[in-house]
Every structure is written in structure tokens, then in C-alpha cells.
């Protein structure tokens, strides 16, 4: 089981209370598709992803950004057992969506960068550490059911 | 090999022109974050009296690192030969595991997002990420 310090719990809850879910999800997924274009392989049904402008304004990308944030909120609400909370999500990603789990780290890095941009100086090194630890647990939980 | 296009180089140079005067601050903050968020990187700095964010050794070394990045921007058309002596330094003297270049690059990008929220667009992000990866490759050239 993951151990969270009081600081980490508070910092992570604080981040999620401050960020705009609609903006962050969409911006992070857009950046992922732009910065790591091979990740577009999983979004063949999303239509126009031909350039950065198209990706940033694509309504399916925005909608999916919200889906991702909803998933993260589940983890946020169950921080003491993300592994169990994410069991079905992990099976979905491995068996149905067949996503190479290394991609989770790419999206995670983009989320960190977008959250940093939103929070500015309030995203201190220690807060960044807490957020990245949270993402690492999320990623590990998503990887759990890959066989 | 993911090499830099003409557009990537132009984007990097234009962005660098905007941010270079903040080079020392960027370096210090990126290094601070690396040491806090990836504590295993502290193993390279056990000779420092103080590894805390904003400390004198961290500030000084952040400036050194960004000086290297500035040199890389100037030599962007041939990083391998341009960064030859830095590559030899990292390979034979410092022997920094190359995985750490990716870690420091990530923290540089986080700092850029914080300090330049409007200028650090997705297009600039991808160009800078590719550039820092190319710098890392050039630094790893002499390792083996």
C-alpha cells in the first residue's frame, strides 16, 4: 500500500481543487498528441489531428480530456487504494484499448507541464514531487493488469 | 533518429532569444526540482554542502548547465561536433548515467511552463523537447 505524507495528501487535493478540469484535461491530451505524435495511433476515430491547431481545437480531444480527468478524480477520491479502484480501467487499457503502457508516462509528463503552467509559482518543487508521486501510483495501477 | 527540422531549429532559436536572459533562474529552478522530485539524482552532488532549492551550489550549477544549453542553441546545426568537449567531460569525468538527461530535460520544460505560460505553446514544447533530447544524445556520444 502506498504511504502518503500529510503534506502529499494536502498538496494533491489542493492541486485538484485549483485546476480547471476542462482546460487541463484537454490541454494535456493535446500536448501529448502534438509532442509525442505516435500516440495518435490510439485515436484513429478522432478525425482531424493533422497539426497542432487542429488537435487543439478538436472537440473529440476536448471530450476525451474530460474522460481522463474523471478517471484521475477516481484516484484522487481513493488515494489509499488506487490499485483496486483502477482494476477495471487497467483491464480496459490492456485488453480492449491495447495501449502500450509506456504512453501513460508521456501523458503524465504533459499533465505535469500543463498543471505547472496553470498553478505557476505555487507549483513548488515539493508540490511537483507530490503530484508526480500521485501520477506514478496512477500509472503503476493502470499497468497492473497487463499480462 | 528524430533529428531537428529547420522549423524546430527556428522555433528553438526564437524562443531562446525570449528566455535567455532568465537562463540562470531557469537552470537553478530546474536543478532544484530535479533534486527534490528525483532524489536519486542527489547522488551526483554529495560533495555539495547544501542541495536545497535556491541554495548557492544549486544556483551556481544551474547557471553552468544553462550555459551549456546556450552553447547548444548556438551550435544547433551540428550538436555532435559542437558539444564534443562537453560530451567527453560527461563520458569520462562526470559519468552521469544518460537516463538523467531526460530527467533534467523534463524539469527544464516544467520551469518553462511556469515562467513563460503564454510563450510555451504546444509547438514550442515539442521543439524544445526534441532539442533537449538532441542535446542529450550529443552529450552521450562519447560514452561508449
From TrEMBL, chain A:
Keyword Magnesium: no
Top-level taxon in the UniProt lineage: Eukaryota
UniProt cross-references to InterPro entries, sorted A to Z: Globin, Globin-like_sf, Globin/Proto, Hemoglobin_b, Hemoglobin_oxygen_transport
Key words, A-Z: Heme, Iron, Metal-binding, Oxygen transport, Transport
One function term, GO molecular function aspect: organic acid binding
GO CC terms: blood microparticle; haptoglobin-hemoglobin complex; hemoglobin complex
Domain Globin: 3-147
Gene3D superfamilies in alphabetical order: Globins (1.10.490.10)
GO biological process, alphabetically ordered: hydrogen peroxide catabolic process
Family stated for the protein in its record: Belongs to the globin family.
Full protein name: Hemoglobin subunit beta-like
Organism: Poecilia formosa
Automatic annotation (TrEMBL), chain B:
CDD domains assigned to the protein according to its UniProt record, in alphabetical order: Hb-alpha-like (cd08927)
Any one Gene Ontology BP term: hydrogen peroxide catabolic process
Key words, A-Z: Heme, Iron, Metal-binding, Oxygen transport, Transport
Alphabetized Pfam families for the sequence: Globin (PF00042)
Record-level GO cellular component terms: blood microparticle; haptoglobin-hemoglobin complex; hemoglobin complex
Positions of the Globin domain: 3-144
GO molecular-function terms, A-Z: haptoglobin binding; heme binding; metal ion binding; organic acid binding; oxygen binding; oxygen carrier activity; peroxidase activity
Cited Gene3D superfamilies: Globins
Key word Transport present: yes
Top-level taxon in the UniProt lineage: Eukaryota
InterPro entries from the UniProt entry: Globin (IPR000971), Globin-like_sf (IPR009050), Globin/Proto (IPR012292), Hemoglobin_a-typ (IPR002338), Hemoglobin_oxygen_transport (IPR050056)
Similarity section: Belongs to the globin family.
Protein name from the UniProt record: Globin domain-containing protein
Organism per entry: Poecilia formosa
Lineage of source species: Eukaryota, Metazoa, Chordata, Craniata, Vertebrata
Amino acid at each position: 500500500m502506498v504511504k502518503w505524507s500529510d503534506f502529499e495528501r494536502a498538496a494533491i487535493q489542493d492541486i485538484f481543487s485549483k485546476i480547471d478540469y476542462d482546460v487541463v484535461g484537454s490541454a494535456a491530451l493535446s500536448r501529448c498528441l502534438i509532442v509525442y505524435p505516435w500516440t495518435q495511433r490510439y485515436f484513429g476515430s478522432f478525425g482531424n489531428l493533422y497539426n497542432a491547431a487542429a488537435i487543439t481545437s478538436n472537440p473529440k480531444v476536448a471530450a476525451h480530456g474530460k474522460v481522463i480527468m474523471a478517471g484521475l478524480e477516481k484516484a484522487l477520491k481513493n488515494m489509499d487504494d488506487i490499485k483496486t479502484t483502477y482494476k477495471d480501467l487497467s483491464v480496459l487499457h490492456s485488453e480492449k484499448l491495447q495501449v502500450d503502457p509506456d504512453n501513460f508516462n508521456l501523458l503524465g509528463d504533459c499533465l505535469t507541464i500543463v498543471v505547472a503552467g496553470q498553478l505557476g509559482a505555487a507549483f513548488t518543487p515539493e508540490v511537483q514531487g507530490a503530484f508526480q508521486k500521485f501520477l506514478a501510483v496512477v500509472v503503476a495501477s493502470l499497468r497492473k493488469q497487463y499480462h | 533518429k528524430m533529428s531537428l527540422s529547420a522549423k524546430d531549429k527556428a522555433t528553438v532559436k526564437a524562443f531562446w532569444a525570449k528566455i535567455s536572459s532568465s537562463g540562470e533562474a531557469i537552470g537553478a529552478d530546474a536543478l532544484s526540482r530535479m533534486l527534490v522530485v528525483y532524489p536519486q539524482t542527489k547522488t551526483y552532488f554529495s560533495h555539495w554542502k547544501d542541495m536545497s532549492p535556491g541554495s548557492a551550489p544549486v544556483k551556481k550549477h544551474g547557471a553552468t548547465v544553462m550555459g551549456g544549453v546556450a552553447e547548444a542553441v548556438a551550435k544547433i546545426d551540428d550538436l555532435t561536433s559542437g558539444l564534443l568537449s562537453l560530451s567527453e567531460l560527461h563520458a569520462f569525468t562526470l559519468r552521469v548515467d544518460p537516463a538523467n538527461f531526460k530527467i533534467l530535460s523534463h524539469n527544464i520544460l516544467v520551469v518553462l511552463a511556469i515562467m513563460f505560460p503564454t510563450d510555451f505553446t504546444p509547438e514550442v514544447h515539442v521543439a524544445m523537447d526534441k532539442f533537449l533530447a538532441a542535446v542529450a544524445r550529443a552529450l552521450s556520444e562519447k560514452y561508449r
